[in-house]
Structure prediction request, 619 residues.
Amino acid sequence: MTTVSPAMPAPRKRRKRMSWWRVAERAFLYVLVVFLVVLFVAPLVWGFLASLRDPSAGVSGPPIPEDLRWDNYRYAWDGAFPFATYLWNTVVITLIATVPAVLTSAFAGYAFARMSAPGKNMTFLFVLATTFIPVSIIFIPFFWVVVKLNMYGTRWPWFIWGIAGSAFLIFFYRQFYAGFPQALDDAAALDGCGHIRTFVQIYLPNSIAPLVVGFVILGTGWWGEYFYAQLLLPDQTLPLGPKIAGGYTDPGLQIVLPAVTLAGSFLFTLPVLIVFFLLQKRLTQGIVTTGVKG
Amino acid sequence: MESADPVPITPSRSRRRRASRSTRETLAFYGFLSPWLFGFLLLTSIPLVLGFAMSLTNLTTVNLGNGLKFVGVDNYDRAYHDAEMWYAIKRTAILMLTVVPLWIGTQLGLAMILNSGIKLLGVWRTLFYVAVVIPVVSKAFIWKSITAEDGGLLNRALGALGGPSDVNWLLDYPQETMILLLIWGGAGVGMLIFLAGLRSIPEELYEVARMDGAGALRRFVWITLPLLTPMLMFMLVIGIVGAANIYVEPILLAPGLFGQGVGSAVPPENLTINIYALQRIFIEGDFGYGAAIAWIFVALLLVVTAVVFLSGRFWVFNAKEQYRR
Prediction:
């Protein structure tokens, strides 16, 4: 503000007049935002501190435990079950459910945004309607279908979920591709590109950010999914969700160990956090620039 | 959307080409959709039809082999007279009526703060969003340690402010505890979507309003809100459906030992209709009845969203209509 050139006295004067009010307003804004950030981050910090407490005790005592029990993490890693094995299971399930879903959702989104066909609007309604269906309706018949197809106890259902895509992402990509200029399609058509080539060579390379958004949104969901995994998979292919949800006990299965369970939860969370922080710029900007509009 | 044809050579040829083009386009459209259609058929349509058929039978774990018969609307009739089901519907309604406004308020509030020209925008945005990526199982354990009766963060904060510091949150205030978790973990995505909406409002509108002497509140009420109504409608419908379908959080936040799955002792305050139906199915093995409850729930949800959606005629700002006049 001090760099306003002397050639422009008018704005300087105006700024000076309203400055104390502006400063108070700004100060309030920053106090507010810091307060809210503390509210949003405090649970994570608290949970992390609690994971370093005495494994069998609660969370009473000083807020920052005097004796930091890092060995909770070692016990969470190999004390109760081989964490690495289940971590790998989680990676596999997440990838087979997420990667195809992002691609097929982009395909469907493109079709809804850039193509015309009879029944298009009706089909789109069906896509949106799938989000209404609660798990309690679907589950038993779904289970029956899985058993009939000999997929019980295998990872096939996750791959089929992957192929089926996600209604939210289809909607998201439809909004995104609807914003592309028509001239792009025309130019591609003049060059003799069919829809597949237009999509793969023009649209897909121009949608890296939304694809990343889709991958993170869907992937974090599947990473943490535990309900279906618990009911459909045998122990050796279980992802970490159900394993962690089961909690940790001491080797004699006598007492539950809340601090170790939290340590396990953080180990389980760490990979997603790393991916999120690596991609966060793309992710948070991707959602904003794609602009989901009602 | 009409796609441009290549320059026609002769009229008759172009007409024939257009006809074949539109057929090809239709085929291509359904080709692009085929993965989704396949999944829709296998994972949604077939189970949905089977689920409805199931709700018309007396199917339980006992009569899976024999004794299975068609009972018509008996299950629906039973549900109608089931006081506990109506209680579950009431709890679901209360949850929706609290969590949806709180979601939208938090999301819009955070988005407006981020849109106010604040410095370090990316840092704040990331920190507000980070809870979204944490797996729900981890969130639940973090929440259990926060709401712990003896020395939990929430009780400590309350105690420091002069309130009671020995509240058993999971047992005595299960719904409040769950709502706090849902807001913490569910505000991020909506915040970014609202932020996109705020960014799309042309700055000139605010300039003009400022020149006319409109204060911040009036600018918000007369410019921001009307232009955000299409997005508010979108978030409202997403929020209603999302809140109605909650089932993992009540299970994971059930007090007591760790993760007993569907069989966990969900406190009555968190007995949403989804949980009630799942309990009939998994605990009592009463498949037909559970399916009937789930269908009643879907019917109610459809009515609610349809009403909300149709109400949009009265409050959603439609730019196209305005320009046409």
Q: What stands out?
A: Chain B touches chain A through 103 residues (CB under 8 Å). The CA atoms of residues 168 and 253 of chain B lie 13 Å apart. The radius of gyration of chain B is 26 Å. The domain at 74-324 of chain B is CATH 1.10.3720.10 (MetI-like fold).
